[in-house]
Design brief:
heterodimer; A: mainly alpha; 2 domains; globular; B: alpha/beta; Rossmann fold; 3-stranded antiparallel beta sheet; 5 helices; 11 strands; 20% helix; 30% strand
Chain lengths: 269, 268
């Protein structure tokens, strides 16, 4: 563990420090948006968008490697595809509600396929899996700035429109009767996110704002725990974070289930 | 003795030759009816008859294909946020972490602003008192019974200090105590607030009801339905526990003209 701390603060080894800062910055996004994704039960939608961005990454790799658009980075491609996917899902769900699931699954599959096709055509070797899971240890300083800007935007929107977000997540029809443009709220909140930290927070949170806070804190704790564990065990950092997060989520679910069974037994006996 | 109320006060809701279709399936055709301010009305009809469509048209969630819907004719400055709506269910996630008071506060929700003033706080407190849920204020919404949740949704609607209160199947899956309290609340609002209850029970309605509008009489032209105003009469045999008190029978065999209530006051 001492070795881990030493490396974390070693000025000549920025990658671990950057990974840690990135983890903490993204925790804010995960906590706030994950809370919304969880209560709206749209984790399938978040999954679809986060996988569809592979299409944008593949497209960006192809255009930059082949010299057509040399300045196009994978992150830009991913953002373009995330926005396109959100708009398509938003428009389709607005026009034909019953087809939302089909469109979500189609976006998931088609987006990934586009990415694989572009990568196959990209000069040199590109591994789709490395882009799909990412590598938190390769985070650059400019990525950190981008994350900080996204944090600021999301935090501002969550604060500014909290009553509208809360009401439309709780009862969309009522919010529309009150004049809230619920689909605009939906598209703003639809950015690909992990839902597990907020899901775990949901076990103990009393309201949506608490769920956002706790989701952020849990996400930060899981990231720190994951990165330090991956350092000690020499395992891939991103995957370790996800496994630890999932394990805590399942444990929380199990504890809650046992508590419920225990209460039921005590009441009946 | 006939119990219809006859008056010619200002009109709260007017449907004028309204037709509506979902795609190529006509649902409503040439619907004409009106409700006066302060009236307690019931919109009755079997499931699938188009009651919910009328509700959605009223709430501006759908737009009519033809015809015109006007609310509070001649009332300058009427805004749609003075409509209180109590849905049959809030389409919420059962694990949504929210307290009773936070749900009621949604009744003061504005389309864009996040401000919550002292007048909003007063309206929320008053609405919770009227709906008899003040003691539940800090409780998690998901821990309440079905009847208690419905009263919370009534309080949410009352928090907007509504001129028009619309309740969709308010007594479905409600326990007797909650029903009695609900009709007590509605009774205290009668006269000052225009109330419209939507129900699939076609035989009896609460004795608070002034007029009954029945959806479902098919027109000769096709499958679309229209709305007919029917007469009511006291029903000694109606089960009082279903309506939180006395009920009246709906006379489906006696249709009234839409202008019935606007004639000279008369007793039959």
């Amino acid at each position: 563990m001492n070795g881990f701390i030493d490396v974390l603060f070693n000025p000549s080894l920025p990658f671990l420090r950057n990974a840690m800062i990135a983890g903490i910055l993204s925790s804010i996004l995960f906590g706030v948006l994950g809370a919304i994704v969880t209560v709206k039960r749209i984790s399938g939608l978040a999954g679809a968008i986060s996988h569809a961005v592979l299409g944008g990454i593949g497209m960006a790799l192809y255009f930059s490697a082949s010299g057509i658009v040399p300045w196009l980075t994978p992150v830009m491609g991913a953002m373009i595809f995330a926005v396109i996917a959100s708009i398509i899902i938003g428009v389709v769900s607005l026009r034909a509600k019953q087809r939302e699931d089909t469109v979500i699954n189609a976006i998931w599959a088609v987006g990934m396929s586009i990415g694989v096709l572009f990568m196959a055509r990209t000069p040199g070797y590109t591994d789709p899996m490395s882009y799909l899971f990412g590598n938190i240890l390769l985070i650059s300083v400019s990525d950190l700035y981008l994350l900080a800007v996204l944090d600021a935007v999301v935090l501002f929107l969550a604060w500014r429109f909290y009553p509208q977000i809360e009401a439309s997540a709780f009862d969309e029809e009522f919010s529309r009767v009150r004049g809230v443009k619920t689909h605009a709220v939906g598209i703003v909140m639809v950015i690909a996110m992990l839902t597990l930290p907020a899901g775990t927070a949901g076990y103990i949170a009393r309201n949506l704002a608490w769920m956002m806070w706790l989701g952020s804190i849990f996400s930060a704790l899981f990231t720190i725990a994951g990165i330090s564990a991956s350092w000690s065990m020499d395992t891939p950092a991103g995957a370790t974070v996800v496994v630890i997060t999932g394990a805590v989520f399942l444990s929380a679910a199990a504890v809650q289930m046992f508590v419920r069974i225990f209460k039921r037994m005590r009441n009946s006996g | 003795m006939i119990t219809e109320k006859s008056h010619s006060g200002p009109v709260a809701i007017r449907f004028n030759h309204v037709s509506f279709a979902y795609g190529s399936s006509p649902v409503l055709e040439d619907v004409n009816f009106h409700i006066h301010q302060g009236d307690f009305s019931a919109l009755v009809g079997p499931n699938g008859s188009g009651k919910t469509t009328i509700l959605k048209l009223l709430l501006n969630l759908e737009r009519p294909d033809s015809g015109r819907i006007t609310l509070f004719e001649g009332l300058a400055g009427f805004k749609r946020d003075r409509i209180g709506y109590v849905p049959q269910h809030a389409g919420y996630d059962p694990a949504f972490p929210i307290t009773v008071k936070e749900v009621v506060r949604m009744g003061r929700l504005k389309s864009f602003s996040r401000k919550f003033r002292s007048v909003d706080e007063e309206a929320v407190t008053e609405a919770m008192e009227r709906a008899g849920i003040s003691e539940l204020s800090g409780q998690p919404y998901q821990s309440l019974s079905g009847g208690q949740r419905r009263r919370v949704l009534v309080a949410r609607a009352l928090a907007s200090r509504p001129l028009l209160l619309i309740l969709d199947e308010p007594t479905a899956n409600m326990d007797a105590e909650s029903e009695e309290r609900l009709f007590g609340t509605l009774g205290s609002l009668k006269g000052s607030t225009t109330i419209l209850i939507v129900t699939h029970d076609q035989s009896f309605v609460s004795s608070l009801t002034d007029i009954v509008l029945c959806v479902g009489d098919r027109l000769k032209t096709g499958t679309a339905r229209t709305v007919v105003r029917h007469r009511t009469e006291p029903a000694a045999d109606a089960p009082p526990d279903l309506f939180g008190g006395k009920a009246v029978r709906v006379r489906h065999d006696v249709a009234l003209n839409d202008t019935f209530c606007c004639r000279e006051v008369k007793k039959i």
